[in-house]
Sequence to fold (235 residues):
Amino acid sequence: MKTYCLGDPHGNFKGVVQATLRSGFKPQEDRMIILGDICDGFSEVRECIDLFLRWKNVILIRGNHDEWALEWFNREDPYHNVVPERYWTEQGGRSTLKSYKEGMPKTHIKFLQSALPYYIDEKNNLYVHGGFNPSKHIEEQSYQDLMWDRDLLRIAQHKHNQKPDYKYGDYNLIFVGHTTTQCYKTTDPIRYCNVIDLDTGGGWSGKVTIMERDTGEFWQSDLAKELYPEESGRR
Fold:
């Protein structure tokens, strides 16, 4: 069994399918760790989750956009605001609503609810959506901080220039999403010290990326703006 890691899909089902096929991932044999943010971006969130539910060995990390979607759909009255509607819809939620015109199925809600705040595998690799504070033990950090943190990637970038082999948190590798690598002028994964960012803009105009854990080899979809020319994603 191989272990793969998937960066933030954001409803980009076509990109997920492309990257998966190009990677050689075997859905009934291999393990896939999804770094969160399945929701909000392009209009095929439902199709993404339907696909993930068919995979045998999936570990899902909770992303902030998944949290927003759950807050919206997981209640008796879907129009009673928990998430500020305008803020959410302008951040990609409009496409999630389009994908679930009649509400989110219970199986999809259950799948999103199964997401972990972080995961540490048998090789001491950490998987987290946003990041964490290296001065505190991972178990001491809040769900919100783990979903929203961007400081880890930023400080790792600066540290990398001084000591590229430095390891944060004594982990082997740390896989994160949340901050698109397009902010760093690339649609490829980036690595600073032992921190690897796999959000390569699949929910924006970039690509969906899958990486094989042990080799670091990665596979990508075509650009999202080419796969969904009639949609704008999270722009």
Observations:
- Residues 3-227 form a domain with the Purple Acid Phosphatase; chain A, domain 2 fold (CATH 3.60.21.10).
- The CA atoms of residues 139 and 156 lie 21 Å apart.
